[in-house]
Amino acid sequence: MSEALASLAYGPDGWGDELLSGLWLTVRLALTALPFGLGIGLGVALLKDSRSWTGRLFGEAYTTVFRGLPELLTIFIVYFGAPRLLSASVAWTERLTGREPSGFAAAVDGFTAGVVALALVFGAFSSEVFLGAIRGVPGSQREAAESLGLSRFATFRLVILPQVWRLALPGLTNNWLVMLKDTSLVSVIALAELMRQSDVAARATHEPFLFYLVACLLYLGLSGLSTAGALWLERRAGRSFASAARQG
User: Fold this and answer.
1) Are 127 and 48 in contact (CB under 8 A)?
2) So what's the pLDDT on residue 102?
């Protein structure tokens, strides 16, 4: 038992540093994808709630595709397909402009591909959360803001968005926890995140239960911290509304 625990040591004689580096890469992947996914989700939700039928069609198509595809397949498409698409676009532009072919060959590193794939999937699921929150804000508040002379942008930024954020937080927290787990899938494109490092260590030491248990505890730790952070955000977002309710 002591030999097994010694394999978790930090340094050349153990796998502790590899596990921590994998944990850090997992956190960086999720945190980098988060703002892009939130932006995509909010943008798609606004399209689906717009008066333009083309906007609604694009929003529905986007969510249908990226909610329907397995996350693993999305990662493969981004990692292997995006470079080919970019290279073909450059070649097509060169032919169109009459320039000599440059032979440009695009490449996407594993981290970028993982971030893009995670953001696309997170955005698709979050768009439904944002859409429900947007439609949960009473229309009378928009009318009141317009009667005060606020522009549509000011109305959205000052009146609608704070309430949308409060209403969407529980659903977004759930999506964030799912994305944390989905980071394990990027190991298929040779990115040494937590799950891949745990698997390598388990195979090298022939102690699969120990290292998978450690990975389990680390993922649960991330989930616990995320849940605590989300509860703090929910209390902060609902503070002004609770104060207004007491005054009312």
Assistant:
1) yes
2) 75
Question: In angstroms, how far is the first alpha carbon of the chain from the final one?
Answer: 63
pLDDT at 245: 47
Alpha-carbon span 2 to 210, nearest angstrom: 12
**Closest C-alpha to 4, from 200, 205, 201, 204:** 205
**Residue 51 to residues 54, 57, 136, Cα–Cα distance (Å):** 9, 11, 17
Question: Residue 6's pLDDT is what?
Answer: 73
Tell me the residue length of the chain: 248
Structure tokens at 78: 């981004």
Asked whether the beta carbons of 10 and 185 are under 8 A apart, the reply is no
pLDDT (mean) for 157-165: 87
33: domain CATH number?
A: 1.10.3720.10
**Cα 184 off chain centre by:** 13
What pLDDT sits at residue 3?
Answer: 63
- φ, ψ of residue 60 to 5 degrees: the values are -65, -40
**Domain of 35, in residue numbers:** 2-247
